[in-house]
Specification:
Low-confidence stretches: none
Structural class: alpha/beta
Largest sheet: 6 strands, mixed
Number of helices: 15
Strand order of the largest sheet: 5-2-1-6-7-8
Radius of gyration: 21 Å
Order of helices and strands: EHHEHEEHHEHEEEHHHHHHHHH
Mean pLDDT: 95
Distance between the termini: 16 Å
Helix content: 40-55%
């Protein structure tokens, strides 16, 4: 089970009422994430669990290709480190606590400098040699769904308790494309939340139709440039007009699958790695209830 950790703690922050620890520190995102993990582990009993981390939420190489990428979320651009993301202060102070809690429990956290959690997930899910569940509220990760390799997404957009199991049939029934086409589909459709403008005039229906006829982005671009192809004048003009965007956007949208990451050591712990530290954190931040729930679930 690969967790898109930031996706989960953002949802916990906005979905769990404001709670503070004994010293006044907000802890709703910490508590929510712990309970999300407890619920998912209890339901699915994974043999391995990884909290995938955004070491860089807006990698410079993606910005170099597409300057608008996540641009609206930037509070401050930093030349020598990841740009500062717009994060509410009450959530920002909880992120180090989340890392402390995960470490004390012995739950593996993996990130990669210069890459997003999506890229870590893509790499660990590819060639995993075992069934993989990816937990996220991010549609971009639908591109990793692979029925043959037993990789699916547990989509938490409507809440962890109301999540959907995303398979290729699910993607096809909702979007009219196969999961392996989803990245090209998203490239054409665009996504304002990620600063992806998309191809003007090409919505989901047209994008799905083009992929159904021409297979992938390379096939669509080739057909648009070929006067003898049977692509209609409307889509042809829109694809040709977006040539500059389409030359770079697919690389931005595609999740990396080949990072140099250590594999192994991900086993789901059956007890806390550091019981004293867990107890200390629980007392310091008022996390006794979610701590007991998580310990009970880990113990099976």
């Amino acid at each position: 089970m690969l967790l898109d950790t930031a996706s989960m703690y953002f949802r916990a922050f906005y979905g769990v009422p404001e709670i503070t620890g004994p010293d006044g520190t907000p802890v709703n995102a910490v508590r929510g994430l712990m309970d999300f993990i407890s619920r998912l582990v209890d339901q699915y009993r994974p043999t391995d669990l990884v909290c995938c981390w955004d070491n860089d939420w807006r990698p410079q190489w993606r910005v170099d290709l597409l300057p608008s990428y996540k641009g609206h979320r930037v509070v401050e651009e930093v030349a020598t480190a990841p740009d500062v993301e717009e994060v509410p202060d009450p959530l920002q102070v909880q992120v180090p606590i989340i890392l402390e809690v995960l470490e004390a429990f012995g739950i593996r956290v993996i990130g990669a400098d210069g890459y997003e959690a999506d890229d870590v997930i893509g790499t660990l899910a590819t060639g995993a040699g075992q069934p993989v569940d990816i937990v996220t509220g991010d549609r971009d990760l639908f591109q990793l769904v692979d029925d043959d390799a037993d990789v699916r997404v547990l989509y938490i957009a409507r809440g962890v308790g109301n999540h959907e199991q995303v398979t290729n049939d699910w993607v096809r029934s909702k979007y009219g494309v196969d999961a392996h086409q989803y990245a090209d589909f998203a490239t054409m459709r665009g996504d304002a939340s990620d600063g992806l403008p998309g191809v003007p005039g090409v919505g989901e229906k047209t994008a799905a139709t083009l992929l159904g006829r021409f297979g992938d982005m390379d096939g669509i671009i080739a057909a648009a440039q070929d006067p003898a192809s049977d692509m209609g004048p409307g889509p042809r003009g829109k694809i040709k007009a977006a040539a500059e965007y389409l030359a770079v956007a697919p690389q931005v949208v595609a999740v990396a699958r080949d990072l140099d990451l250590e594999r192994g050591g991900w086993a789901l712990p059956s007890c806390a790695a550091d019981p004293e530290r867990v107890a200390d954190l629980a007392a310091r931040y008022g996390l006794e209830s979610p701590t007991q729930r998580l310990l009970a679930v880990l113990a099976g």
